[in-house]
């Protein structure tokens, strides 16, 4: 029977994406859509699915290889039309699975004066985390540095006392080692893949960015009435708008009025972005991820709402594409559906600000001669104090609150 090549599908503008997990082996039977292997970019993972029922004849890649769109990953023998394919159990990629490494010699330190072996993706990760590759112990073949080597180095560095010159480290005390079981019953759960990957980045952002949070409130009484009316008009079959698409549209107006908030630091320069790609924190069983809605300034609230729903669904199912969580210029973390009155969201570097939304509540507001009940939305605006000062932050939240109070301002 003829065989055919299974290739990497469309992965957007990404190149040289590493293979982090092989889910099948030669001889395995697979069905259409079964995951064959897993690729991982800086912020997301994706599975390469089988295009047909059949038997795996030969693998053409291994863990650690870098692939592009169109790269041949394996040879597949299609199943006969009359034969029922019963796939063997696969090591399905789950959030708690450890990222496998290429079989290698025991970890070893980079020899002094030699250039560490590392892919461009690993070097980029090291630069973002401020890691000197020459000080990292490698576990890959022929001394090649892997992602887990960088993360392990960062974890170790953050749990030991700094020994460099005064002022160059945080001089943190060692992380306490405790035998928790001696105090009572315990249960140990492995961190999810998202937690393992995002943890070092969150720690980096919190330590390296001087966070300040501006708190404010927006009167969304009229906005909520508008949202309810729109959903009523849509009926039972139409798309139901949440508050988030409307807040995103209001943020566009504020970002355009205060473009410094829609920027990034790049060395000694400030990069002002002329686009509005807004990320939103999505709660998933594996942890928080931040998909990005692109060109929010060019879309209506219904289209934004539709994309939010699609991205949130993909996030919960672990099916975000490699390009779904990159390129954001501003982020929103909404906890309104859960509760709380205020919080300090951590900035999603290399962005310089993030907006937190808490649960709205009816409050008495003075209207000149009496108090009236108004629906107030708490705003928590965290910003990078190297770029945004307190006066700009206050102006930003004040204007955003005005826009949320009367969305007609987006037309001005």
Q: What does this 3D model show about the protein?
A:
The protein is of the alpha+beta class. The protein contains seven helices and 21 strands. The chain has helices at residues 120-129, 147-158, 193-208, 221-234, 243-257, 301-316, 390-405; strands spanning 4-7, 17-22, 29-30, 35-40, 45-49, 54-59, 66-67, 72-78, 108-109, 137-138, 211-219, 263-266, 269-272, 278-280, 282-284, 287-289, 292-293, 330-334, 353-357, 361-366, 371-384. Strands 11, 14, 17, 18, 19, 20 and 21 form a seven-stranded mixed sheet that branches. The longest helix has 16 residues, at 193-208. Mean pLDDT is 84; it is low at 84-106 and 160-168.
Give the SSE layout.
Elements: E1 4-7, E2 17-22, E3 29-30, E4 35-40, E5 45-49, E6 54-59, E7 66-67, E8 72-78, E9 108-109, H1 120-129, E10 137-138, H2 147-158, H3 193-208, E11 211-219, H4 221-234, H5 243-257, E12 263-266, E13 269-272, E14 278-280, E15 282-284, E16 287-289, E17 292-293, H6 301-316, E18 330-334, E19 353-357, E20 361-366, E21 371-384, H7 390-405
Parallel strand pairs: 14-18, 18-19
Antiparallel strand pairs: 1-8, 2-4, 2-7, 3-6, 4-5, 6-8, 9-10, 11-21, 12-13, 14-17, 15-16, 19-21, 20-21
Helix pairs in contact: 5-6, 5-7
